[in-house]
Amino acid sequence: MCGIAGLVCLGHETAKAGMLQRMLGMLRHRGPDGQGIYLDDAVGLGHVRLSIIDLEGGSQPMSSADGALTITFNGEIFNYVELREELARKGHVFTTKSDTEVILHCYQEKGERCVEDFNGQWAFAIWDAPKRKLFLSRDRLGVRPLFYARTSQRFVFASEIKAILGDPSVGRAIDLRGLDQLLTFWSVLAPRTIFQGVSELPPGHSMVLQDGALRIAPYWQLDLSGPDESMTADQATDLLSECLYDAVRIRLRSDVPVGAWLSGGLDSSIVTSMIKRITRGSLRTFSLGFDDAEYDESSHQRAMIRHLEVDNSGLGCHAHDIGSAFPQVIWHTEQPVVRTAPVPMFLLSRLVRDKTFKVVLTGEGADEMLGGYDLFKEAKIRRFCGAHPDSKFRSKLLRRLYPYMPGLQAQPDDYLKAFFRVGPEDLASPFFSHLPRWDLTSRLKLFYSDEVRAELQGYDATEDLRAQLPGSFSGWDPFCQAQYLESRYLLPGYLLSSQGDRVGMANGIEARHPFLDHRLVALAARIPPRLKMRVLNEKYILKRVARGLVPESIRNRHKQPYRAPDVASFYDSKRKQARFGYVDRMLSSDNVAAAGLFHPEAVQRLANKSKRGGVIGVKDGMALVAILSTQLTVSQFIHRLGGPEHGALD
Question: How far apart are CA 594 and CA 199, in angstroms?
């Protein structure tokens, strides 16, 4: 796992090492073990390395034996052993034991189609010198990031946006449509980003720059259009168990020790148990706990620790810890967030680093692929209620969805029906499953400044999303539609980014996700919805796989969504003041007015309400986090570029 950067000069200038050095300087947290630069006239490739496979021979950028191809690569190709053996039989000669060299030989063999053979998580660029062609690719699900910008002077790319903004030819300004998308979907729709002129290569896509022309095309697409309704529960259980075991097995390939997240939930518990069965040895796990019982899962973590007899390191997270680290986390997410959840993951990654580990396996992706989120259950209940809107009995089911939200429980039936969008026009929408979430998040736009409101007049973020959907989407099973929206947008745009790669790699920690093995994703797409959620029993088929792997108390527990304290992280309601100086500065009327994105008076009312402890409900908490993180984004990336200087923010 590493950080990559590069440039192609589009005029008559030559690539300069100094420019690449500046870009790599912004990525040093991703690769503390080494750095390299390759220059070829107008082309430059850079690399910072986190050594995990072939510690001695995997330095980059790496060139082929004849010097025709040079690669800078971020990620892991987990099936590199099998690919290497296949290529060796065809006459390819290897000089290292790295997966990086395997990519080069695969490209020699198959050209751009080489990515179809990879099982892994990657972002890489190959300079094909004889063809004067730059080939870039990103993994299928978007585990690893890849950003780019094109100006009149040059084309630049990097693992993180901050490296691209280090090029003075790239302007710095907030993309208002990108902001509007984020305040609808929690993330920006690739290829757009929160910054004007900076783009993101979408997951499952490759890109070619040749003779000044840029070509982008998908090599893989998530297809949930045709579940196999003939599949039985026994067949699905056997297939899923076999596939998941192999996905875990190949993700244990490493020349450094491998650990695991252990949240106490079903997904990470299954992965951890499979690791123990495969390795039959000791295992270091890492867990996150909260002092607030509303967010804590420590009792379930202890049950798994006893069951598997693992060596666990736990981190207790307090609201104060979240507020203290928040500016640093936004420096790494490089975009606003609407929840504080990335911060504890950042702190946990730091603990992993302090324990001298570099690699952890996680349960990320199971909820998306196998139907685990409350959102899927919610959509099913909403459809049930919407089919008979006059039924008082059915409407009461809406109260059972979120027992941990007392404010929602107190609302009358008519309010719940409106909040959960169960009208006839809602039922007909292909976005039915996500309408309540998007409505709730979109209320944050009430804080827009008059100028932003005028600029965005007539813009509808959902129309941009609709334009990206597969042509047959409206005819899919509603459960599959919901899965697609989660997997295609929220997963790469937020969960694998702000809450994943960015906070992990901020501490030089690589996360690997067996549930996102593309073979398992394809298999999960074939499993019919009735086996993913049996009535309202979420992840039914995965729970069958879990038999004998985890205690029954874990297998049958109700899913607890991962959340973290929000308003309490920034304000001490007893003292009626902000916990940190940066909070008052970022939300001051002068700073808010200077950024020009939100209405200063509305933000001040929210801040004062927060100080008094008067913020109740999800909407205000999300608004505070979103506005504060947006102000930090402007401060750190637009007004200056150099990270959250601790003394300036605390």
Answer: 25
Sequence ranges of the domains in the chain:
2-218, 233-370+502-555, 567-649
Give the helix/strand (H/E) hosting 640: none
The average pLDDT across 622-635 equals: 98
pLDDT for 648: 44
Assigned token pair, 588 = 């001051």
Could you tell me which residues are beta bridge partners of residue 578?
A: 571
Task: Output phi, psi for 262, to 5 deg.
Answer: -135, 95
Average of pLDDT values for 27-41? 93
Q: pLDDT tens across 580-592, in order?
A: 999 999 999 999 9
Q: Is the dihedral of CA 579, 585, 590, 595 positive or negative?
A: negative
Q: Do the beta carbons of residue 533 and residue 376 sit within 8 Å?
A: yes
CB count within 10 Å of CB 459 equals: 12
pLDDT attached to residue 118: 98
**C-alpha–C-alpha distance, residues 92 and 94, integer Å:** 7
Topology adopted by domain 2-218: Glutamine Phosphoribosylpyrophosphate, subunit 1, domain 1 (3.60.20)
Q: Band of the pLDDT at 393, cuts 50, 70, 90?
A: low
* pLDDT in the model for residue 13: 87
Distance CA 610, CA 629 (A): 16
Looking at residue 599, its amino acid is H
29 CB neighbour count, 10 Å cutoff: 18
Say which DSSP state 161 is in.
Answer: H
Encoding tokens for residue 243?
């596939």
Residues β-bridged to residue 125: 72, 136
What DSSP designation does 496 have?
A: T
| pLDDT score of 409 | 66
Q: Which of 475, 377, 461, 390 is nearest to 428 (CA)?
A: 475
275: nearest Cα among 254, 260, 256: 260
- The answer to whether the CB of 492 falls within 8 A of the CB of 141 is yes
**Cα-flanking dihedrals φ and ψ of residue 186, to 5°?**
80, -5
Active site residue 385: no
Q: Which CATH architecture has domain 233-370+502-555?
A: 3-Layer(aba) Sandwich (3.40)
Buried b (16+ CB within 10 A) or exposed e, 505-539: bbbbbbbbbbbbbbebbebbbebbbbbbbbeeebb
pLDDT tens for residues 57-102?
A: 778 999 999 999 999 999 999 999 999 999 999 999 999 999 999 9
The one catalytic residue among 2, 9, 106, 317: 2
- Residue 562's nearest CA partner among 300, 358, 323 is 300
pLDDT of 534 above 50: yes
Model pTM above 0.85: yes
